[in-house]
Amino acid sequence: MSQTETLIETPEARGPARADRRAFFANALGAAAVGAGALALTAQPAAAQSAATEVDALNFILNIEYLQANFFAVATGGTALAAADISGSGTAGAASGARAVTFADAIFASIAKEMAADGLAHVKFLRASLTSNFAVAQPAIDLSAAAGGAFSSLARLAGLVGAGQAFDPYASEDNFLLAAFMLKDVTVTAYQGILGLVTTRSFLEPVAGLMSTEAHHAAALRGLLYRRGLATPSLIEASEAISNARDTLDGAAADLDQGVRPGTNAAGAAVANVAPLTASGTAISRTPQQVLNILYLNGGTATSGGFFTAGLNGTIKSTATS
Question: InterPro entries, alphabetically (predicted)?
Answer without folding.
Answer: Pigment-catalase-like, TAT_signal
